[in-house]
Design goal:
The structure is a homodimer. Chain A is about 65% helix and about 10% strand. A 3-stranded antiparallel sheet of chain A has the order 1-3-2. The termini of chain A are far apart. The interface between A and B is large, with 57 and 57 residues. The structure holds a DNA duplex.
Chain lengths: ~150, ~150
DNA sequence: TATTGTTATACTCTATAACTATA
DNA sequence: TATAGTTATAGAGTATAACAATA
């Protein structure tokens, strides 16, 4: 009898990989976020950037990029878009003419407040099958993974 | 005294959003996966497709696309790449000439086995700060979220 | 020399719509 | 009519490498 490669669980099945499951669930959240805010709504990355700009007024672009975990160069288009929508402004910083501080406009603050409510509903909807403990555990574990990685480098 | 928009926690802070944390952790896993398999290594999506093809021999392209949660059209390039690398073959299915079954080659099975070991190490490395319970809870919750979404539609 | 913001460019992954050949 | 595979195209998001202005 010839030996064939066994169909047994020599290897982790795809479904048991955290990375794969993260990807699948991330895609679900991402798509639902867009559906929730609609065709003309803010993209996830613009919402994230606006959120940090509102909650950390006068943050610089470099700081914001680091906070979001993306490159400075990638942030330019995001800030361009938010500024184009009149949601925030680039303002010069006295003392260092290289820096642009990001200041949310009143319109930006108002829109952020409105959108945030819908974002909460979107999360609530997707998480509705989880118990309170499961939700807390999920956030906690995701933050722990982020922190461990950031401390590594 | 004028009322200003309070900096208090009226809204969920960005860091407390599951969607945002999912994105950040997904990016970490994705980048580390690529670093682990190297410049010439399989991409995450090709590894996923090969994994399912190996563990579900003669799966059709449509079935595989559905299993991966992507469009049939998107799978074409993935199968092209895997076939180009000699890791699997499109084989005709008797009885329905529309269908292509995907059959991993011996080389594909061997490479999958080798790579899977490295993928396990990559996951182990990233998850090393989590307890066994936390890991189990994470997979379980991610699967639960996927399942709930898939049952919804 | 180093940093901030910027541009140009390329890469990965995905979706939508239309086509063809089969059924 | 419906399905499997395919193509063409576009869109979102990211990174890398270079640059000018400023420190």
């Amino acid at each position: 009898m010839n030996t064939v490669i066994s169909s047994d669980s020599e290897f982790a099945t795809l479904d048991s990989l955290i990375g794969y499951n993260l990807k699948r669930v991330y895609m679900i959240f991402q798509a639902d976020f867009r559906r929730t805010l609609g065709k003309e709504g803010l993209s996830p990355r613009c919402y994230s950037a606006l959120s940090l700009a509102v909650q950390h007024t006068d943050i610089t672009q470099s700081e914001l990029a680091r906070e979001l975990g993306i490159e400075r160069s990638g942030l330019v288009a995001i800030v361009d878009e938010l500024e184009g929508l009149g949601l925030l402004s680039r303002v010069p910083v006295p003392g260092d003419r290289r820096v642009q501080a990001l200041s949310p406009t009143r319109k930006g603050q108002k829109l952020f407040a409105e959108i945030s409510r819908r974002v909460s509903q979107h999360e609530e909807r997707l998480l509705s099958t989880l118990s309170v403990e499961e939700r807390k555990g999920l956030v906690s574990v995701l933050k722990k993974l982020r922190k461990a990685y950031e401390e590594r480098e």
